[in-house]
Each structure stands twice: as C-alpha cells, then as structure tokens.
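Hi Y.,

Following your request, here is the sequence exactly as I used it, all 215 residues.
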Amino acid sequence: NDKSDTWVALDRDVNQRVFLTVFHGPLGADVVEQTRTRIERTRGLIHQHILRIYEFGQTGETCFLSQQYVKDARPLNLTDASFRQVWPTLQTLMNTMVFAHELGFAHGQLHLSNLLIDPTGELYIRDFGLPAGLIVTPDARSLQSPDHGKSGSADPADDIYALGCLVYRSLTGNGWPTAGQVFESSVPVPDEVRAATDSMLRPSAYDRARDLNHI
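Below is the corresponding structure, written out as tokens. Let me know if you'd prefer a different format.
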C-alpha cells in the first residue's frame, strides 16, 4: 500500500525470519507513542493463532514493525469457496477472538489481508491491536463497521461486525453486506443462523451482538 511495505527479513539478534513492515516517511510523535503503548499492552496476549509483534522501532525518521513470520502464508481467500469449506477457518477465528475478548483485547481491524492461511490450512491473525490506519490495505474498509473508530480504540464490537461480514459472504456468496441489504442466499440458511448473522451486522454497536460465545 502507499503507507508501508512488508518484507520477509532476517532478525540477526535471534537468527529467525520475521515479517518486517517499513513505513514510508515519518509517522509523527503521537502515532509512534500510541503504537508503542498498544504493542506493549498486547505483549501478554499469547495464542497459537495470533502472530506476535516483536518490535516497533525507528531509525532516523523511518519506522519499522517486526512480527512473527509464517512460511508461505497467504491472505484468506473466500472467492469460489463454499461455506462448508470456509467454516473451519471461521470457527477457529471466532474461537480465537473469544479468547482475546475475554482477556480484554480486541483487534479492531479484521480483514482478509491480516487473516493469513499457511499451506496446511492453519489460520494466523496479524496486526493485532495496532492503531487504526497505521497499516492500510485495499480491503480494509470492506469489513469496517459503520461506527468504526468512534470509541477511539480497538473495540470488540468492530471485531464482531467484521466476523459477521465474513459469515454473511460465506453463507450467501453475494459479496460484502451493505447497509439495509436483504439477507438473500442461494442455499437454505436456518432461521437461527440468519438471526445470529444479522445481530452481528447491526449498524450501531449498541444494538450489535456482544457475546461471541453465544454467536
């Protein structure tokens, strides 16, 4: 994207590969401090499906971010995939977010580019807890809730909306949901599944489902 580039790099201090994101131009003191604070806060969030952030540093005016590396990982691809094929990945994603939410953490910016799948089909979530807008990808807005960012920080309600978008698209094959869109599917969808999905896609976080365990 136009704000950063991500490379596979070798961290010589620990002799292992990392995902290294290099940002174009200075980020500003406020953004740097906010990013460092959020990364420090999520250090205790350790889960097999969440990529760890190792370091956020600065050389001159150039900032960089290193994260855990996954070999041959690719962004989640929902094109031409049935719900039955996608559901195991969505179930893993939802269970992982239940774990994070119960510990008081939210991602806030779930989208296909930061949901990585390795060659064995395992899911990995990257960019967990980073400030909104720090890493921008073309598909980021597709899963953003209408009230995204109003709380000023990552919010579980934003994650639930994004998960609802993923479920909706996988169930219907109709692309991403839009405001006021009628739930239409070419295959039968049980009423309770339709109701659960609709509850995740409410425009207002106040009306949106909050309990992923229930979902």
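Strands lie at 4-11, 16-23, 53-59, 62-68, 74-75, 115-117, 123-125.

Thanks again,
Q.
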